[in-house]
Amino acid sequence: MPFIFRMAFRETRAAWKRLAFFFLCLSIGVGSIVTLRSVIQTVRHTLTRESRALLGGDLSLSTNRPWDPKVRDTIDSTLASIPYTARADELETMSMVRPEDPEKQVARLVELVGVQQAYPLYGTVTLEGGYPYAHGLLRDHGALLRRDLLVQLDVGIGEAIVIGDRRFTVRGVITAEPGRSTGGFSFGSRVFVDFADLQETGLITYGSRASYRVRLKVADGAADRLASSLRGPLRSQFVSVRSFRSTENRLSDNLVRAENYLSLVGLVIVVLGGVGVWSVVRVFVHQKIKAVAVLKCVGATARQILGIYVLQVLGMGLAGSLAGVGFAGAALWWLRPVIDTTAGIATPYALTGAAIAQGAGIGLLISLLFALVPLLDVRHVRPSLLLRAAERPPHGPDWVKRAAIVSVGAGLVALASWQAASLRIGLVLSVGFAAIALILHGAGLLLVKVMAPLQASRRFEVRYAARRVVRPGNQTRAILLTVGLGAFLVVGVRVLQANLLNEFQLDLRPNTPDMFVIDIQPDQEAGVRALLSDSANGVRTQANLIPVLRARVSRVQGARVQLESYEDVRRRGGLGREYVITYRPGLEANETVVEGHFWDASPAERPEISIEEGLRDRAGLSLGDVVTFDILGRSVEATVTSVRRVDWADARAGGFMFVFRPGPLDSAPRMFIAPIKGPADPVARARLQRALTERFPNVSVVDVQEILASVSKVVSDVTFAVTVVGALVLFSGILILVGSISMTKFQRVYEAAVLKTLGATTRTVALLLVFEYALLGFIAGGIGSLGALGLSWGVSRYAFDVPWTPLPGYVAAGLAASIALVTVVGLAASLDVLRRKPLATLRAE
């Protein structure tokens, strides 16, 4: 062992420049894993510790309908046996907000939150400027807003805004609030007012969309018992009961899942670094054949020599892993100001011991796994090689090497499964990576045949470059794998982003509504219709007021599905959610019947419904099934008589999963929505929204253009994040490319010396290198970019369900970038080959 340690140290000291990029490849992947896991583990620990603040209490009861007296009695009787120490009621709805100043022609849709004196039970409301929060700020029609809404409305603290038919004074700017992380998607900025003041605005009417919530603080250990006591009797009343324990477990599970999935990104980069390790070790062993033969001549055994190089690989792997930990520490230092808080809770981001150990362990394992197969070749080096020009390979199959290859594959599956905490995901990732590697490897083999015509080219540079690409000992496969995979990720994400944005643009075609007027009461129908039909308001299409009601499925009696209670319906996937339904005599332009027959214009005595085809496929509904609905506390049974296909991109009549035949619901309490094509001018759009809210304070306007802008920003942010991943993969590929070229530079220097001696100029040698690397870049970029089309098609078709366009311009750009990248990197790494004089090289040989 002392001999092995001394030789490993000497070998590393002598070849550290050649192996320098070895640990750089590993450090990128290890650093990514350690950074991702450290951030998410820190967030998970913080959020689960602060789960009460995230929920806003020990227990939360919420419903989307006014509290029924029977429900109140059930809650009060249960709380009598399990007392609570504090209680806070909340009321939340959507509404339009506008400045009181008539000169400011602007209005915005917001989420309006009414809170009581006890709010918040846990956590702290943070106000801009460090001012303390107190409920007194909301008394006498005070309001707290977000900074973005102040800017949009052009108001400041102390100025007045109008909500409903009441005037409110802005008294502070909120920067963080407890209990918000469970709030879901937001249609607008949030505005806080007093609970009683919100009820006086006239916004909460029969059928209005509002959320009613009760938050409770209970004695330690009583939350789970209270939740269990309430869930049973309240579930059939459409009341959600959640404890901070369920929030804690859900957050923990989601963050663990995110941690595992994101760590797979780092694993992919580490595996690419492993490809670089394999490439380096393969060339390194080829260079050390004579040194190995000398060692065997002086008495070293194959086991000792193998131990020398395994120890050297482990030392370099440890160096790369430590460098990755340092990279992770620097990344966290840089990210700390950017993501200093999560959900309003201060999070001290720092490296975690588990993440460091895991990242370093993966770096060492990858180093050993990928170096093992090429290192086994030293067993076949014989001392007689010093006396012969070449050594014949051993006869028969090398079962040890084959076993090592199988072990490497099993090790990669185990690592991927460990990172994803799922054997299935690990297998899928490993099989997918192996498939891409096999395709690129097959492309390398096919390259030999494709290069045959070029090897007969009359141009010397092309002919020689083609022969260098296909000769033994080249780095074609490593370059194809890394550059091809990087192009695959980057181009695939770009094509997917373009298709998504194209879909958003299609939604705003000339005949498609871009504004929705909602919560129109029956007595306001004529007035809203008249206002929208006034040409002075800039509306370019006739307003179509659609009657809507809110309903839940409570029972299904069907041929394929039998759901006897709401509890059974909830277990049937999304069928248990609340639906917005309508009734009308005919089909709309964006609908076609795919099964059954749609009714005529005459009303019916017995309720009939038409369902969207997705419900038929997902929920198992079919023609003739009887579906029972709970509509504002009233049970209505309806028979399925047709199935419709809805073009959701065409929103001229909205989109409805359930449509009733006119008659049974004509007298039910209902509201109206009006999809319209609003004015193109932003000032005119703001003027229209203000006119609606001034005359009809309860009416809200959803501006689709603003929502699509927000969605486009989210898509761009996600695309940027995934593109960064692809860039990391490409950067890993560049390192591997540089290392591969550096490791084979001794061959190129000698060849360049011979060519220059025979009359070749530096320009000729440079052109030779340009043709060689451009050819490799063309093949790698072409395969990766074409594979990216398949990636974008699969995600568009099966994940987002949007139309797919191939967009060949992105493929061409990816191909051109790959050619330029490989060519520039190859030339930059070969400058020494071009500058070195042939005489010194030939004398050295």
Q: What does it look like?
A:
The chain is α+β, with helices and mostly antiparallel strands and 845 residues long. It has 25 helices and 23 strands. Strand 11 and strand 12 form a beta hairpin.
Query: What percent strand?
Result: 15-25%
Shape: elongated
Largest sheet: 10 strands, mixed
Low-confidence stretches: 181-185, 341-345
Task: Work out the helicity level.
Answer: 40-55%
**Assembly context of the chains:** single chain
Q: Figure out the total of helices.
A: 25
Strand runs, count = 23
Mean pLDDT: 77
Radius of gyration: 34 Å
Which structural class matches the secondary elements? alpha+beta
- Straight-line N-to-C gap: 34 Å
